[in-house]
Amino acid sequence: MVQNERFRQQYVFWLDMNKPDEAALAGRISELKTCRKFAKTIRDGIRLIEDLQAGRLDVLFALFPDVSEHLQSPLYANEIASLLEQLRQLTINGQTHNAFFAQNHSPSIPEVKAVLNETEAIQRSVINTLASLDDF
């Protein structure tokens, strides 16, 4: 009689602590491990990236239900739809998300700016969310 044995694999990767972004990731990883959320975050992140690269948003909406609601808001639906279509086309054409951001955003350090209205706040939130995916 064969018992169901657990089969687990461990993956190791390196962070260059001389790079500020990677040093910050190391700190975040420590926090996630303390809360026992590191492995789930890695799995979710890989699922999200694969889904986005395939031109799908299912995992994004499953992980972040509020994004779906925001995208359906009439306050900025046209702008977001346009950005998502551009991202989808770049993904279909095999271009990376870096090309998308280079085309639509300056690569400099983002400026600190007071948000003047709700529409602008929502737009900045979505853009920041997409930009944060660049680290994965």
Rg calculated over all Cα atoms: 18 Å
Mean pLDDT: 76
Largest sheet: none
In total, the number of domains comes to 1
Low-confidence stretches: 106-110
Number of helices: 7
Question: What letter string, H or E per element, gives the SSE order?
Answer: HHHHHHH
| Count of β-strands | 0
Shape: globular
| Helicity, as a percent range | 55-70%
- Look at the helices and sheets and give the structural class: mainly alpha
Task: Report the β-strand fraction as a percent range.
Answer: under 5%
Distance between the termini: 43 Å
Can you walk me through this structure?
The protein has 136 residues and is mainly alpha-helical. The protein has one domain (20-135). It is 61% helix and 0% strand. The chain is built from 7 helices and no strands. It has helices at residues 20-34, 38-53, 58-63, 65-71, 77-92, 97-104, 118-132. The chain is globular, with a radius of gyration of 18 Å. The model is unreliable at 106-110 (pLDDT under 50).
